[in-house]
Structures are given as structure tokens and as C-alpha cells.
Amino acid sequence: MGTPKVPAADQTLRILSLLAGSRGPLAASMIASKLDLPRSTVYHLLDALQEHGFVMHLPEERRFGLGIAAVDLSSAYARQEPLARIGRPLLAALVDRVRLSGHLAVPHGRDVLYVVEERAPGSPPLVTDVDVRLPMQLTASGRAILAALPKAQVRALFPDRESFVHRHVDPGGIDRYSRLRSVLDATRTRGYALEEGSVTAGLSSIGVPVLDHRGWPVAAIAVTYPEGAVEPEVAAALASEVHAAAETLSARIHGRRASS
Questions:
Q1: Domain extents for the chain?
Q2: What is the rounded radius of gyration, in angstroms, for the C-alpha atoms of the chain?
Q3: CA-CA-CA-CA torsion for 14, 20, 23, 27, nearest 10 degrees?
Q4: Residue 35: which of 11, 58, 54, 57 has the closest Cα?
Q5: How many CB atoms lie within 10 A of CB 142?
Q6: CATH 1.10.10.10 fits 7-66, yes or no
Q7: 219, 78 in Cβ contact below 8 A?
Q8: Other beta carbons within 10 Å of 185
Q9: Beta carbons of 164 and 175 less than 8 angstroms apart
Q10: Which label site among 135, 211, 212, 230 has the fewest CB atoms less than 10 Å from its CB?
């Protein structure tokens, strides 16, 4: 005999699954239509989900997207090791090839949480150690993840200046959404994220997102090097190595072959 369903729980999980599978936020009417639920029921459930942080409302667009609590669930999955176990040997191989320290990070609210670090021989210790959290907009890993998100989702994560946290005084730092948007536009055009001295003075990083089967960023792989040590033409080749590792990790998460 099967376990009886709890209607409200079933409907709530269906809403979360729908939002997780969408490329961007959805209107309540669209959610109701896609799930064949009464609009009143959808609004009540969205209110409860918003109260607990699993859903965020985008008033300008009259749409709903996943909230920070939902993002935390995905990083909790990573903290329980599957992603780290799959990613660790790939990262070790990447570090061995490029002779630079590398790390794997996952989104954690407005931060990134580092779950794997592989240090190149002779390289200095980094702040991006395992279990360290850093503001997403400062890091190459975080910028790679943000650049792969829909713009509305990024705007919802950073609604005001108070959303931007800094490690040290940086006159040219990202302290407002317009600056973040400019950095993310450049990241998309370039094909990889670049961070120069925003986390640690004198160090730069290149980051690439790890995408799931829907094209949603679930993690990022990055490598770090002394500022000025990598010429622009070399940076593009280095980014290709990082991209290959990220693509392989994405493929292995979902049990498919990496594209050649």
C-alpha cells in the first residue's frame, strides 16, 4: 500500500521543481497554468515559500524565482560530498596540467562556498580554502556563476547597495548593481570570469561555471595565479583548460559524455 500524498506538500514541491527547471522567474499565473492548480492556492503557497526564503518575488516583473534558502539546499548537497568527490580528481588533473592552484566552489546565497582546493607545488596559501565563504561578486567563481544566471535572478540577489559586501577598500570595486552588470556582461563576452586583486591583493583568478542539464550554474571551477603572470593570449588558453574541466564535471554529474 502506497504512502498517501499530502496535497499542500505535494503542490509546494511541484512549484519548487517547476521554478528550479525554468531558465528564469515565472508569473504566478504561469505557475498555476503549468501545474493545473488554482491561482489562489498558488498565491498562498508562494507566500509561505517567500516567508521562509525558498522563493523571492520580483515586484517589477510580477514574477517569482528561487530564493536564497533554495540555493542553500543545493550547496548543502555539495557539502555532503558527491560533487566534491566527483570534482576533486578533475581539479587535481587540471592543476597538474596548468601548474596553478585551483578550486571548486558552489553558490551559497550571495556567497560562494569552496568545497575543493588543490594547491600547485610551491604556490602560496590562498583564502579560498575548503569551507570558506566569500562574497560572490568578488570572486572569479562567483562571477562565473552569476554570469550564467538570468539577469532577473541576479537583480533579485543584489537588490540594493547593502547587498554588496567587501573584503577591503577598493575604489573601483563592485558596490552597486550597475557595476556588477557591467562585469557580468564582460564575462559573457569574454567567455570566462576574471578577477584581479578583489579577493587578495596581487592575485588573479579565472573562473568557468559548471552547468547542469538545464544550463543552470551549480558550481564553478577557477584557477589562481600572481597578478600579471599570465598574458592575455595565455589567459584565453588557460580559460579553455578550465572550461574543459568544468564541462567534464558537468557531464559526470549527469552521467553523460563531455562534448568534444
A1: 7-66, 71-253
A2: 19
A3: 50
A4: 11
A5: 26
A6: yes
A7: yes
A8: 12
A9: yes
A10: 212
Report angle CA 47, 51, 57 to the nearest 5 degrees: 60
pLDDT by residue for the chain (260 residues), tens only, comes to 445 567 888 899 999 989 887 878 899 999 999 999 999 999 999 999 999 888 988 888 889 988 878 776 765 655 546 788 889 999 999 999 999 999 999 988 889 999 899 999 888 777 777 778 899 999 999 999 999 998 888 988 888 888 887 665 555 578 889 999 999 999 999 999 999 988 888 899 999 999 987 788 989 999 999 988 888 888 999 999 999 999 999 988 765 555 54
Q: Residue ranges of the alpha helices (H) in 3-51? A: 7-21, 28-35, 39-51
The C-alpha cell of 93 is what? 588533473
List Cα–Cα distances, 12 to 3, 8, 24, 35, 92, in angstroms. Answer: 17, 6, 18, 11, 40
Q: What is the pTM of this model?
A: 0.70
85: cell is 568527490
Residues across the chain = 260
User: Are the C-beta atoms of residues 197 and 228 closer than 8 Å to each other?
Assistant: no
What is the CATH topology of the domain spanning 71-253?
Beta-Lactamase (3.30.450)
Q: Which of 88, 106, 183, 92 is nearest to 145 (CA)?
A: 106
Pairing assessment for the beta strands 55-58 and 63-66 based on DSSP bridges:
antiparallel
Amino acid at 23: R
According to DSSP, the β-strands at 203-211 and 63-66 are unpaired
Short-list 254, 183, 190, CA closest to 218: 254
Note whether 7-66 and 71-253 share their fold.
no
